[in-house]
Amino acid sequence: MASAANAAPTIVATTSPAEAVPGMGAAPVFKAAGGQVTFHPRGRILLDFSATSGSNVAARNYAATGARAIRIGADGTVGDHFAYLMEADLSGANAQVLNAYVAWRFDTTGKVRKELRVGNLFADRGVEGATAVDAVPFMQRNLVADAVLPRAGFYGVGVQSRISGDDWHATLSVTGDPLDANSSMRDSWTVSARAHWDGIGDADRFVHLGAWGFAERLDPGVDSLSRSLDIGGRLNTALRIPSGPLLGARSSEGFGGELGAIAGPFWVMGEAGERRFQMRDGSDPDVTAWSIGGGYTIFGGRAPYDRRSGSFIRPPIARSVLAGGAGALELVGRYERLDYDRLIAAGSGREITIGANWYLTQYLRLMGNLVFWHIDVPGARPDDGHTGTMRMELVF
Predict the structure, then answer these.
(1) DSSP 8-state assignment for residue 223
(2) How many domains does the chain have?
(3) How far apart are alpha carbons 245 and 228 in whole angstroms?
(4) CATH number, domain containing residue 59
(5) Three-class SS of residue 60?
(6) Is there a contact between 85 and 101 (Cβ–Cβ < 8 Å)?
(7) Taking the complete model, does pTM exceed 0.85, yes or no?
(8) Which SUPFAM superfamilies match (predicted)?
(9) What is the mean pLDDT of residues 239-263?
Protein backbone atom coordinates (compact mmCIF):
# COMPACT_ATOMS: atom_id res chain seq x y z
CA MET A 1 0.00 0.00 0.00
CA ALA A 2 1.42 3.37 -1.00
CA SER A 3 2.11 5.92 1.71
CA ALA A 4 0.45 9.33 1.66
CA ALA A 5 3.74 10.94 0.64
CA ASN A 6 3.98 8.70 -2.46
CA ALA A 7 0.33 8.85 -3.46
CA ALA A 8 -0.52 9.87 -7.01
CA PRO A 9 -1.45 13.52 -7.56
CA THR A 10 -5.15 14.34 -7.57
CA ILE A 11 -7.12 16.78 -9.72
CA VAL A 12 -8.54 19.51 -7.52
CA ALA A 13 -9.57 22.58 -9.56
CA THR A 14 -9.80 24.26 -12.96
CA THR A 15 -8.48 27.73 -12.12
CA SER A 16 -4.88 28.84 -12.09
CA PRO A 17 -3.27 28.84 -8.62
CA ALA A 18 -0.53 31.22 -9.76
CA GLU A 19 -2.64 34.15 -10.89
CA ALA A 20 -5.91 33.49 -9.03
CA VAL A 21 -7.93 35.21 -11.77
CA PRO A 22 -11.27 33.74 -12.93
CA GLY A 23 -11.26 31.82 -16.16
CA MET A 24 -7.66 30.72 -16.49
CA GLY A 25 -8.46 27.87 -18.88
CA ALA A 26 -9.71 24.35 -19.31
CA ALA A 27 -6.72 22.39 -17.98
CA PRO A 28 -7.05 20.97 -14.47
CA VAL A 29 -4.84 21.77 -11.51
CA PHE A 30 -2.96 18.82 -10.06
CA LYS A 31 -2.33 18.75 -6.33
CA ALA A 32 0.25 16.57 -4.61
CA ALA A 33 -0.58 14.62 -1.49
CA GLY A 34 -0.71 16.92 1.49
CA GLY A 35 -1.66 19.92 -0.65
CA GLN A 36 1.77 21.58 -0.51
CA VAL A 37 2.48 21.54 -4.26
CA THR A 38 0.15 22.34 -7.19
CA PHE A 39 0.83 22.13 -10.92
CA HIS A 40 -1.34 23.60 -13.69
CA PRO A 41 -0.44 23.07 -17.38
CA ARG A 42 -1.48 26.03 -19.48
CA GLY A 43 -1.59 27.01 -23.13
CA ARG A 44 -3.22 29.25 -25.70
CA ILE A 45 -4.02 28.77 -29.37
CA LEU A 46 -5.13 31.92 -31.25
CA LEU A 47 -5.61 31.42 -35.00
CA ASP A 48 -6.46 34.44 -37.18
CA PHE A 49 -7.79 35.28 -40.63
CA SER A 50 -7.52 38.77 -42.16
CA ALA A 51 -8.78 40.34 -45.41
CA THR A 52 -8.13 43.95 -46.45
CA SER A 53 -9.79 45.93 -49.23
CA GLY A 54 -10.55 49.52 -50.21
CA SER A 55 -6.93 50.74 -50.13
CA ASN A 56 -5.51 52.99 -52.86
CA VAL A 57 -2.34 50.87 -52.65
CA ALA A 58 -2.94 47.55 -54.39
CA ALA A 59 -0.30 45.78 -52.30
CA ARG A 60 -2.37 46.38 -49.17
CA ASN A 61 -5.48 44.62 -50.48
CA TYR A 62 -4.94 40.96 -49.68
CA ALA A 63 -6.04 38.14 -47.36
CA ALA A 64 -3.81 36.26 -44.93
CA THR A 65 -3.94 33.64 -42.21
CA GLY A 66 -1.66 33.18 -39.24
CA ALA A 67 -1.29 32.46 -35.54
CA ARG A 68 -1.51 35.35 -33.10
CA ALA A 69 -0.24 33.06 -30.36
CA ILE A 70 0.61 29.41 -29.79
CA ARG A 71 1.73 29.20 -26.20
CA ILE A 72 2.56 26.44 -23.77
CA GLY A 73 3.57 26.64 -20.13
CA ALA A 74 2.72 25.85 -16.55
CA ASP A 75 2.03 27.54 -13.25
CA GLY A 76 1.45 26.48 -9.68
CA THR A 77 2.26 26.92 -6.03
CA VAL A 78 4.61 25.45 -3.43
CA GLY A 79 3.35 25.81 0.11
CA ASP A 80 1.19 28.72 1.20
CA HIS A 81 3.32 31.58 -0.13
CA PHE A 82 5.42 30.52 -3.12
CA ALA A 83 4.05 30.61 -6.71
CA TYR A 84 5.58 30.19 -10.16
CA LEU A 85 4.62 30.70 -13.82
CA MET A 86 6.39 29.97 -17.10
CA GLU A 87 5.10 30.41 -20.65
CA ALA A 88 6.69 30.30 -24.12
CA ASP A 89 5.28 31.30 -27.51
CA LEU A 90 5.81 29.06 -30.55
CA SER A 91 3.93 31.08 -33.18
CA GLY A 92 6.99 32.81 -34.68
CA ALA A 93 10.05 31.51 -36.47
CA ASN A 94 11.74 31.04 -33.09
CA ALA A 95 10.32 30.07 -29.71
CA GLN A 96 10.18 33.01 -27.32
CA VAL A 97 10.01 32.93 -23.52
CA LEU A 98 7.30 35.28 -22.23
CA ASN A 99 6.10 35.13 -18.62
CA ALA A 100 8.69 33.32 -16.52
CA TYR A 101 8.76 34.26 -12.84
CA VAL A 102 8.61 33.11 -9.25
CA ALA A 103 6.54 34.97 -6.68
CA TRP A 104 6.28 35.26 -2.92
CA ARG A 105 2.84 36.04 -1.50
CA PHE A 106 2.96 37.73 1.87
CA ASP A 107 -0.69 37.18 2.79
CA THR A 108 -2.93 34.67 1.04
CA THR A 109 -6.02 35.00 3.23
CA GLY A 110 -6.63 38.74 3.75
CA LYS A 111 -8.54 41.14 1.51
CA VAL A 112 -5.32 43.04 0.81
CA ARG A 113 -2.84 40.90 -1.11
CA LYS A 114 0.88 41.65 -1.33
CA GLU A 115 3.17 39.88 -3.75
CA LEU A 116 6.77 40.14 -4.96
CA ARG A 117 7.66 38.72 -8.40
CA VAL A 118 11.12 38.07 -9.84
CA GLY A 119 11.79 36.94 -13.41
CA ASN A 120 10.72 37.79 -16.96
CA LEU A 121 7.69 39.93 -16.18
CA PHE A 122 4.68 41.15 -18.16
CA ALA A 123 4.42 44.94 -17.87
CA ASP A 124 1.52 46.56 -16.01
CA ARG A 125 0.74 49.51 -18.28
CA GLY A 126 -2.81 50.65 -18.99
CA VAL A 127 -5.98 48.57 -19.07
CA GLU A 128 -5.45 46.88 -22.44
CA GLY A 129 -1.66 46.95 -22.10
CA ALA A 130 -1.92 44.99 -18.84
CA THR A 131 -4.42 42.47 -20.24
CA ALA A 132 -3.38 39.04 -21.51
CA VAL A 133 -3.64 38.63 -25.28
CA ASP A 134 -6.41 36.04 -24.92
CA ALA A 135 -8.60 38.35 -22.81
CA VAL A 136 -8.46 41.68 -24.70
CA PRO A 137 -12.00 42.38 -26.03
CA PHE A 138 -10.55 43.18 -29.48
CA MET A 139 -8.25 41.18 -31.73
CA GLN A 140 -5.60 43.89 -31.39
CA ARG A 141 -4.58 45.88 -28.30
CA ASN A 142 -5.21 49.60 -28.67
CA LEU A 143 -2.63 52.03 -30.05
CA VAL A 144 -1.92 53.36 -26.54
CA ALA A 145 -0.67 49.93 -25.46
CA ASP A 146 1.31 49.35 -28.67
CA ALA A 147 2.89 52.81 -29.06
CA VAL A 148 3.54 54.13 -25.54
CA LEU A 149 5.89 51.47 -24.21
CA PRO A 150 9.60 51.22 -23.42
CA ARG A 151 12.16 49.77 -25.81
CA ALA A 152 11.99 46.40 -24.05
CA GLY A 153 8.33 46.08 -24.99
CA PHE A 154 5.81 44.10 -22.97
CA TYR A 155 8.36 41.98 -21.05
CA GLY A 156 11.55 42.54 -19.09
CA VAL A 157 13.69 40.69 -16.54
CA GLY A 158 13.54 42.23 -13.09
CA VAL A 159 11.46 42.57 -9.97
CA GLN A 160 7.87 43.71 -9.45
CA SER A 161 5.95 44.42 -6.26
CA ARG A 162 2.15 44.22 -6.31
CA ILE A 163 -0.47 45.16 -3.74
CA SER A 164 -4.21 44.91 -4.32
CA GLY A 165 -7.60 45.07 -2.69
CA ASP A 166 -11.05 44.11 -3.91
CA ASP A 167 -11.33 47.21 -6.12
CA TRP A 168 -7.81 48.67 -6.40
CA HIS A 169 -4.20 47.78 -7.05
CA ALA A 170 -0.71 49.27 -7.40
CA THR A 171 2.53 47.93 -8.89
CA LEU A 172 6.14 49.09 -8.99
CA SER A 173 8.68 47.41 -11.28
CA VAL A 174 12.36 47.65 -12.14
CA THR A 175 13.23 45.67 -15.27
CA GLY A 176 15.95 45.28 -17.87
CA ASP A 177 15.72 43.73 -21.32
CA PRO A 178 13.56 40.65 -22.02
CA LEU A 179 14.94 37.20 -21.31
CA ASP A 180 15.54 36.45 -25.01
CA ALA A 181 17.17 39.82 -25.79
CA ASN A 182 20.72 40.29 -27.10
CA SER A 183 23.10 39.94 -24.14
CA SER A 184 26.21 41.23 -25.94
CA MET A 185 25.63 44.72 -24.50
CA ARG A 186 24.30 46.21 -21.29
CA ASP A 187 20.58 46.18 -20.63
CA SER A 188 18.42 49.26 -20.93
CA TRP A 189 16.73 49.71 -17.56
CA THR A 190 13.13 50.74 -16.93
CA VAL A 191 11.31 51.84 -13.78
CA SER A 192 7.53 51.65 -14.11
CA ALA A 193 4.45 51.98 -11.94
CA ARG A 194 0.68 51.74 -12.26
CA ALA A 195 -2.31 52.13 -9.95
CA HIS A 196 -6.08 51.98 -10.35
CA TRP A 197 -9.12 52.51 -8.13
CA ASP A 198 -12.71 51.42 -8.72
CA GLY A 199 -14.10 52.73 -5.45
CA ILE A 200 -16.77 55.08 -6.85
CA GLY A 201 -20.04 53.12 -7.00
CA ASP A 202 -20.96 49.61 -5.90
CA ALA A 203 -20.08 46.08 -6.96
CA ASP A 204 -22.30 46.21 -10.07
CA ARG A 205 -21.88 49.82 -11.19
CA PHE A 206 -18.65 51.72 -10.66
CA VAL A 207 -16.15 54.16 -12.15
CA HIS A 208 -12.61 53.13 -13.09
CA LEU A 209 -9.72 55.55 -12.51
CA GLY A 210 -6.11 54.71 -13.28
CA ALA A 211 -2.68 56.12 -14.10
CA TRP A 212 0.71 54.70 -15.05
CA GLY A 213 4.16 55.77 -16.11
CA PHE A 214 7.69 54.60 -16.87
CA ALA A 215 11.18 56.01 -17.28
CA GLU A 216 13.93 54.14 -19.11
CA ARG A 217 17.66 54.68 -19.43
CA LEU A 218 19.00 53.32 -22.71
CA ASP A 219 22.33 51.63 -23.18
CA PRO A 220 24.65 53.81 -25.35
CA GLY A 221 24.87 50.92 -27.80
CA VAL A 222 21.21 51.30 -28.76
CA ASP A 223 21.40 53.05 -32.13
CA SER A 224 17.72 53.22 -33.11
CA LEU A 225 14.23 53.23 -31.59
CA SER A 226 12.45 53.30 -34.95
CA ARG A 227 9.23 51.26 -35.10
CA SER A 228 6.40 50.52 -37.48
CA LEU A 229 3.09 50.09 -35.67
CA ASP A 230 0.30 47.75 -36.72
CA ILE A 231 -3.00 49.19 -37.86
CA GLY A 232 -5.91 47.19 -39.24
CA GLY A 233 -4.61 44.05 -37.54
CA ARG A 234 -1.28 42.23 -37.33
CA LEU A 235 -1.39 39.95 -40.37
CA ASN A 236 -1.29 42.61 -43.10
CA THR A 237 2.36 43.67 -43.04
CA ALA A 238 1.75 46.39 -45.66
CA LEU A 239 -0.43 48.27 -43.16
CA ARG A 240 1.97 49.99 -40.79
CA ILE A 241 2.46 53.47 -39.28
CA PRO A 242 6.20 54.29 -39.42
CA SER A 243 7.91 56.34 -36.74
CA GLY A 244 10.64 57.47 -39.11
CA PRO A 245 14.25 57.51 -37.89
CA LEU A 246 14.70 57.65 -34.11
CA LEU A 247 18.48 57.70 -33.82
CA GLY A 248 20.71 58.60 -30.90
CA ALA A 249 18.22 58.35 -28.02
CA ARG A 250 19.58 58.60 -24.47
CA SER A 251 16.36 57.82 -22.63
CA SER A 252 12.60 58.03 -22.82
CA GLU A 253 9.66 58.37 -20.51
CA GLY A 254 5.99 57.56 -20.90
CA PHE A 255 2.81 58.12 -18.97
CA GLY A 256 -0.89 57.58 -19.39
CA GLY A 257 -4.31 57.79 -17.82
CA GLU A 258 -7.44 55.64 -17.70
CA LEU A 259 -11.08 56.59 -17.19
CA GLY A 260 -14.00 54.24 -17.58
CA ALA A 261 -17.21 52.85 -16.16
CA ILE A 262 -18.74 49.40 -15.75
CA ALA A 263 -22.44 48.71 -15.21
CA GLY A 264 -23.40 45.04 -15.22
CA PRO A 265 -23.00 43.81 -18.81
CA PHE A 266 -21.89 47.24 -20.11
CA TRP A 267 -18.41 48.78 -20.06
CA VAL A 268 -16.71 51.83 -21.53
CA MET A 269 -13.00 52.65 -21.21
CA GLY A 270 -10.91 55.58 -22.36
CA GLU A 271 -7.10 55.59 -22.38
CA ALA A 272 -4.49 58.15 -23.40
CA GLY A 273 -0.71 58.09 -23.32
CA GLU A 274 2.44 59.88 -24.40
CA ARG A 275 6.06 58.81 -24.79
CA ARG A 276 8.82 61.44 -24.85
CA PHE A 277 12.27 60.73 -26.26
CA GLN A 278 15.44 62.43 -25.04
CA MET A 279 17.78 62.56 -28.05
CA ARG A 280 21.49 63.42 -28.13
CA ASP A 281 20.84 66.07 -30.79
CA GLY A 282 18.21 67.79 -28.62
CA SER A 283 15.28 67.20 -31.01
CA ASP A 284 13.27 65.32 -28.34
CA PRO A 285 10.22 64.09 -30.33
CA ASP A 286 7.25 62.33 -28.81
CA VAL A 287 4.41 60.00 -29.71
CA THR A 288 0.85 60.38 -28.45
CA ALA A 289 -2.07 57.97 -28.66
CA TRP A 290 -5.58 57.78 -27.30
CA SER A 291 -8.44 55.34 -27.45
CA ILE A 292 -12.05 55.02 -26.33
CA GLY A 293 -13.92 51.74 -26.49
CA GLY A 294 -16.89 49.97 -25.04
CA GLY A 295 -18.83 46.75 -25.02
CA TYR A 296 -22.18 45.26 -24.13
CA THR A 297 -22.79 41.60 -23.29
CA ILE A 298 -26.17 40.83 -24.86
CA PHE A 299 -26.65 37.52 -23.08
CA GLY A 300 -24.87 34.94 -20.98
CA GLY A 301 -22.34 36.95 -19.00
CA ARG A 302 -21.14 40.20 -17.50
CA ALA A 303 -18.58 42.80 -18.49
CA PRO A 304 -15.20 41.03 -18.97
CA TYR A 305 -13.36 43.02 -16.31
CA ASP A 306 -11.51 42.23 -13.06
CA ARG A 307 -11.71 44.89 -10.33
CA ARG A 308 -8.67 43.65 -8.42
CA SER A 309 -6.21 43.89 -11.34
CA GLY A 310 -7.88 46.72 -13.30
CA SER A 311 -7.69 44.72 -16.52
CA PHE A 312 -9.90 42.70 -18.83
CA ILE A 313 -10.46 38.98 -18.27
CA ARG A 314 -12.45 36.23 -19.89
CA PRO A 315 -15.84 36.58 -18.20
CA PRO A 316 -17.62 33.85 -16.26
CA ILE A 317 -20.28 32.26 -18.49
CA ALA A 318 -23.78 31.67 -17.11
CA ARG A 319 -24.32 28.56 -19.25
CA SER A 320 -21.76 27.28 -21.74
CA VAL A 321 -22.55 25.37 -24.92
CA LEU A 322 -21.20 22.26 -23.19
CA ALA A 323 -24.04 22.57 -20.69
CA GLY A 324 -26.64 23.04 -23.40
CA GLY A 325 -26.60 26.84 -23.25
CA ALA A 326 -25.70 29.51 -25.79
CA GLY A 327 -22.56 30.80 -24.06
CA ALA A 328 -22.20 34.60 -23.99
CA LEU A 329 -22.28 37.16 -26.79
CA GLU A 330 -20.58 40.55 -26.50
CA LEU A 331 -20.64 43.46 -28.97
CA VAL A 332 -17.69 45.88 -28.89
CA GLY A 333 -16.55 49.10 -30.55
CA ARG A 334 -13.47 51.35 -30.36
CA TYR A 335 -12.00 54.53 -31.83
CA GLU A 336 -8.29 55.32 -31.54
CA ARG A 337 -5.61 57.63 -32.92
CA LEU A 338 -1.81 57.81 -33.06
CA ASP A 339 0.45 60.81 -33.83
CA TYR A 340 4.19 61.45 -33.83
CA ASP A 341 5.39 64.99 -33.06
CA ARG A 342 8.52 66.69 -34.43
CA LEU A 343 9.43 63.76 -36.67
CA ILE A 344 9.30 64.81 -40.32
CA ALA A 345 9.34 61.27 -41.70
CA ALA A 346 6.81 59.83 -39.22
CA GLY A 347 3.30 58.73 -40.04
CA SER A 348 -0.03 58.97 -38.23
CA GLY A 349 -3.20 56.96 -38.23
CA ARG A 350 -6.62 56.34 -36.80
CA GLU A 351 -9.08 53.48 -36.85
CA ILE A 352 -12.62 52.54 -35.92
CA THR A 353 -13.22 48.93 -34.88
CA ILE A 354 -16.56 47.16 -34.45
CA GLY A 355 -16.72 43.55 -33.41
CA ALA A 356 -18.39 40.65 -31.67
CA ASN A 357 -17.10 38.05 -29.20
CA TRP A 358 -18.93 34.75 -28.78
CA TYR A 359 -17.77 32.85 -25.69
CA LEU A 360 -18.88 29.27 -26.26
CA THR A 361 -17.30 28.40 -22.92
CA GLN A 362 -15.06 30.34 -20.58
CA TYR A 363 -12.01 29.04 -22.45
CA LEU A 364 -13.26 28.93 -26.07
CA ARG A 365 -14.00 32.18 -27.94
CA LEU A 366 -14.82 33.10 -31.53
CA MET A 367 -14.07 36.72 -32.51
CA GLY A 368 -14.81 38.97 -35.45
CA ASN A 369 -13.57 42.55 -35.99
CA LEU A 370 -14.15 44.99 -38.81
CA VAL A 371 -11.59 47.81 -38.82
CA PHE A 372 -12.00 51.03 -40.79
CA TRP A 373 -8.55 52.62 -40.93
CA HIS A 374 -6.87 55.79 -42.18
CA ILE A 375 -3.11 56.29 -42.42
CA ASP A 376 -0.81 59.14 -43.46
CA VAL A 377 2.60 57.85 -44.52
CA PRO A 378 5.39 60.25 -45.58
CA GLY A 379 5.94 60.39 -49.32
CA ALA A 380 2.50 58.98 -50.16
CA ARG A 381 -1.02 60.31 -50.26
CA PRO A 382 -3.33 59.49 -47.32
CA ASP A 383 -4.99 56.11 -47.57
CA ASP A 384 -8.23 54.60 -46.26
CA GLY A 385 -9.56 51.09 -46.25
CA HIS A 386 -11.12 48.38 -44.17
CA THR A 387 -9.89 45.08 -42.80
CA GLY A 388 -12.04 42.19 -41.63
CA THR A 389 -10.52 39.78 -39.13
CA MET A 390 -11.68 36.57 -37.45
CA ARG A 391 -10.16 34.48 -34.67
CA MET A 392 -10.61 31.08 -33.06
CA GLU A 393 -9.24 31.11 -29.52
CA LEU A 394 -8.73 28.16 -27.18
CA VAL A 395 -7.21 28.62 -23.74
CA PHE A 396 -6.29 25.76 -21.42
Answers:
(1) -
(2) 1
(3) 11
(4) 2.40.160.10
(5) helix
(6) yes
(7) yes
(8) Porins
(9) 91
